[in-house]
Amino acid sequence: MSKRLETVFAGVTFKNPVALASGTCGFGREFNEYFDIQRLGGLCSKGLTLNPCPGNDGIRVWETASGMLNSVGMENPGVRSFIERDLEWVNGLDLVNIVNLGGHCEEDYLEGVALLNDHPLDLLELNISCPNTKNGCMSFGLQADIARELVRKVRAVCRHKLVVKLSPNAENITALARACQEEGADGISLTNTFQAMAIDLKRRKPVFDNVYAGLSGPAIKPISLRMVHQVAHAVSIPVMGLGGITTWQDAIEFIMAGAAVVQIGTGSFMNPALALDVIDGMERYLEENNIENISEICGII
């Protein structure tokens, strides 16, 4: 592979700008059985919380037109288990290690960050779409002032490069992104899933126990692309774009809209090796158009 796809994000070099998105690839071991994941630019871990989380009861995944709904509920083994069982393995791979961290109160985030501070990783992706149990379960990522306070406190203790993952359900996505930048975020990633629902006609009840779930997949791509474009033009820190990418053309669109790196999630469920197809397609596009490096088209729109 040439250097055409090499990308620098917040001082971290990716050999190509394609990563697997949090919540869709575990910690990489399962996908490594299908293909050599070291061909990827990066890997974003399953969303971690301070303590182990069993996830939601009931149905967790539901297929929709051009996408899927999920209500997994942050099922994960907890930060300590990840450090003990998986972190060294991931760090041994030739790719950028992005660790995703969520929490249900400020203390959870801060203690999780403190534990990760003592261990090497490339980027810490802060998931602020989690419900704040001390604030009526409102997501930390809905209002800029709430997000600002959390990011400020995390930045004060975090020793790693900090990327904040935004929810598309935010009241004002650009104001939210600017608040994160002002409080010291090194980068932004977006979008997380869109709040949606499904109804079981036979039972005459919502499909999910929690009623609402997260919509992802090709259905959300045009909206996610618009939000990435807005945020990339509103901040001066780099942006990771995700939301419905299933082809190399999709990925190039996100790059042109301002994303320095893209993440692939739901598309991997349809084709586990989709990310490799995207990488190869992007490489061909650059060669055919005599583009020396992908940074030349980043944010050109």
Could you explain how this protein is built, in words?
The protein has 301 residues and is an alpha/beta fold. The protein has 9 helices and 18 strands. An 8-stranded parallel barrel has the order 3-4-7-8-11-12-17-18, surrounded by 5 helices. A 4-stranded antiparallel β-sheet has the order 5-6-16-13, with no helix packed on it. β11 (162-165), α5 and β12 (187-190) form a beta-alpha-beta unit. α4 runs parallel beside α5 (173-182) and α7 (248-257) packs across α9 (274-288). The chain is globular, with a radius of gyration of 18 Å.
Index terms:
301 residues, alpha/beta, eight-stranded parallel β-barrel, four-stranded antiparallel sheet, 18 strands, 30% helix, 21% strand, globular
Mean pLDDT: 95
Percent helix among the residues?
Answer: 25-40%
Order of helix and strand elements from N to C terminus = EEEEEEHHEHEEEHEHEEEEEHEHEHH
Give the strand tally: 18
Estimate the global geometry from the Cα principal axes: globular
Arrangement of strands in the largest sheet: 3-4-7-8-11-12-17-18
Give the percentage of residues in beta strands.
15-25%
Number of H- or I-type helical stretches: 9
- Poorly predicted ranges (pLDDT <50, ≥5 residues)? none
Structural class by sheet pairing and helices:
alpha/beta
Distance between the termini: 27 Å
Gyration radius over CA: 18 Å
The main pleated sheet reads as:
8 strands, parallel, barrel
